[in-house]
Amino acid sequence: MITSTISATKNRLSELLDRVQSGETLIILDRKTPVARVERIRHASNNPHIQLPKGAWNPQRILKLPIRSGRRGAQGLAEAVREERADAW
User: Fold this and answer.
1) H/E stretch holding 25
2) Which of the four pLDDT bands, split at 50, 70 and 90, describes residue 70?
3) If you placed Cys at 26, which of 7, 38, 57, 60 could pair as Cys (CB 3.0 to 4.6 Å)?
């Protein structure tokens, strides 16, 4: 079992993941308190919560996603800011 702090894990992630792939378990610590455990996945079929990709990664698919029209959230925010400024003066 390997233990590593959050900052050390960020700095050595590739090395630590290599060790996890070889069978070791990684415990990530936040100020000496364990917060996460990273283990090797032996067979994805034994883990129903893991969904494997159906095909190769295609970034062009993102560009073809429909864009919602009408940004009511942004307009609502702008109106809220205007109202707050009007009240403050």
Assistant:
1) none
2) low
3) 38
